[in-house]
Amino acid sequence: MVRAPPCHGGSCGFESRQSRKVYKHLLIFLLLVIFLYLFLENLISMKKKFNKTLKPLFTLFLFPFILNSFLGNDIAQANDNISNLVECKNSANLEKRLASSIRKFENRLKLYDENTPQAEFLKKEISLTNARFESYKKSNLLCGKDGLPHLITNGDFHHFNEFSLPGLVFLYITGWIGWAGRKYLQYSLNTENSFESEIIINVPIAFPIIISGFLWPIEAWKEFIAGKLIVTDDEVTISPR
């Protein structure tokens, strides 16, 4: 995992335009999920006749082309916003920042005697700094005028591992944790003393629930289709005011 240098004021290379585009792409993703749900609902409920089957299938076939035409100009404009970035291995500003960082450590190193704990610590920092900047050069990251890598969040699949992939992994892991907690709470509601089961975790029961939680997207979708994922308003407990 490539770790960028610490921030010292500013946005650490994240461009405001690219950040705004992240929210737009998330909104489009949600719209896509809603579309697929409506499509599947229509597909399940319709009769088994060819003329009725052809319509939703044709709509699903055309949707990627419609989405591509909708996002085409947006992605092109986002690519223009990164035209001032260069590959880190070819960045002169990266070399300047590296030289500046090493120079600061070396100036501090002169203040201590050889083989002292302070000197050994600074030598280790110099080695780690060189290794970090070398990893920037070996990656496909793009660097800006500040000499630091910039994460590309405009939907370019060449930079998918910089933001989109970690974001999806984060959502998957948090969903796993939430789904396992939800299943355990459902179990505790059926016990004799539900409050005690929530305070004192029943490990033999909780452990299999946690392990099975890795399939939470499939289980959540099944419950959503069956109408068990969301309860009606009259089933929601409202605290007295």
Shape: elongated
Structural class: mainly alpha
Question: Mind telling me the C-alpha Rg?
Answer: 26 Å
Strand numbers in spatial order across the main sheet: 1-2-3
Task: Indicate the low-confidence ranges by residue numbers.
Answer: 1-17, 46-55, 72-80
pLDDT averaged residue by residue: 76
Count of the separate structural domains: 3
Q: Topology as H/E string?
A: HHEHHEEHHHH
Total strands: the figure is 3
> Mind describing the biggest β-sheet?
3 strands, antiparallel
Count of separate DSSP helical elements: 8
Distance between the termini: 49 Å
Strand content: under 5%
Question: In words, what does this structure look like?
Answer:
With 241 residues, the chain is mainly alpha-helical. It has three domains: 13-81; 86-154, no CATH class; 164-229, Helicase, Ruva Protein, domain 3, CATH 1.10.8. The chain has eight helices and three strands. It has helices at residues 16-45, 50-81, 92-109, 117-138, 164-189, 194-199, 203-212, 216-226, and strands at residues 86-87, 142-143, 149-150. Helix 1 runs antiparallel to helix 2 (50-81), helix 3 (92-109) runs antiparallel to helix 4 (117-138) and helix 5 (164-189) packs antiparallel against helix 7. The longest helix has 32 residues, at 50-81. It is elongated and about 70 Å long.
